Amino acid sequence: MASPELDALTQALARLPGLGPRSARRAVLHLVKKREGTLEPLLKALEAVSEKLSTCSICGNVDTADPCGICTDPRRDDSAICVVEEVADLWALDRSKLFSGRFHVLGGRLSALDGVRPEDLSIDQLVARIEKGGVDEVVLAMNATLEGQTTAHYLAEQLETFPLRITQLAHGLPVGGELDYLDEGTLAQALRARRPVA
Amino acid sequence: MASPELDALTQALARLPGLGPRSARRAVLHLVKKREGTLEPLLKALEAVSEKLSTCSICGNVDTADPCGICTDPRRDDSAICVVEEVADLWALDRSKLFSGRFHVLGGRLSALDGVRPEDLSIDQLVARIEKGGVDEVVLAMNATLEGQTTAHYLAEQLETFPLRITQLAHGLPVGGELDYLDEGTLAQALRARRPVA
Ligand SMILES: [Zn+2]
Ligand SMILES: [Zn+2]
């Protein structure tokens, strides 16, 4: 593989999670050998995504439409908002099909270490959504990390003046566990047993 | 991930070896979150490869130039041709940097079961390359499978009228082993101990 184009493709693929340099080489070979069936569809899919990708102006999800498919889905319940740290967490919960309300992506977690302050997260946008009315429950689905829990407590304080049920995912999640790595069973249990924030 | 574009991208990635549906979803998320650093380079790399990909008219390698980088490399030795079944085998041997001659890709192996006959492989092209002169050695680097060895013996017969050293990779390869799955140490040993075909 002396060709600079094939090298560049191998390197681009090797940057994906789950693919090291060796499997990236095998993937390139596969793409090259089954060009019509694999390379062209992947290229078209990437082009379509690249062209349409946008951040949802309502919830912060990343999708190929703005507002995103979740915010515009008429079957979803407007009265509950599940707040997550990252888009990955939204996707993990959405895949589990356990929560039928709307979502809100904070864009991170409060962190003294990383210098992440409340104004760095989309907290104002969350408050604005709640001020519009119609929301009965906010589920705080932060990671079970110190920073995630600090963020949940901060949010609970900010929202305490609203007539809302504020809940958080039941603990029992593995300590230090990142939401989007959990299996659906653990997620389901944590969501079903969600409880009001003290 | 309700969006059809993101679903299509996930499915296209899940078809790559080494990526299942779950890791494809994580890869899509990674591409979407680190758009500038990952999605755009991957898209550009795929476009470049898709645009330039061709099969080498001399050796059958797949590359972004025709003739390929190996056939046009002036540092390589014209007097030795290593014959392989598939492009994957050529890449595996080339990566090992153990063979400094040219290559020839047959495009498969003789197989009664799969109905692959000599005229389905690029044997005529190999003979034509040898007839041009200047070739002293042909290394038959077929897989250590029954069909691979049948193919090697057939080729040795076809080439016996030429003033050539015909060698094949030393056995000691794992029985049934596919060349491009072997580690470089095994490949190196097999190549170093290559012997004339009886
Ligand atoms: Zn949205
Ligand atoms: Zn070539």
Could you please describe the fold and organization of this structure?
Two copies of one chain form a homodimer. The first copy, chain A, is an alpha/beta fold and about 200 residues long. The first copy, chain A, folds into two domains: about 50 residues, Helicase, Ruva Protein, domain 3, CATH 1.10.8.420; about 100 residues, Dna Topoisomerase Vi A Subunit, Chain: A, domain 2 (3-Layer(aba) Sandwich). Helix content of chain A is about 40%, strand content about 15%. Chain A has seven helices and seven strands, in the order H-H-H-E-E-E-H-E-H-E-H-E-H-E. In chain A, the strands form two sheets. In chain A, strands 4-3-5-6-7 form a five-stranded mixed β-sheet. A two-stranded antiparallel ribbon of chain A has the order 1-2. The model of chain A has no long low-confidence stretch (mean pLDDT about 90). At the A-B interface, helix 1, helix 2, helix 3, strand 2 and helix 4 of A face helix 1, helix 2, helix 3, strand 2 and helix 4 of B. The complex binds zinc ion (2 copies). One zinc ion binds next to loops of chain A.
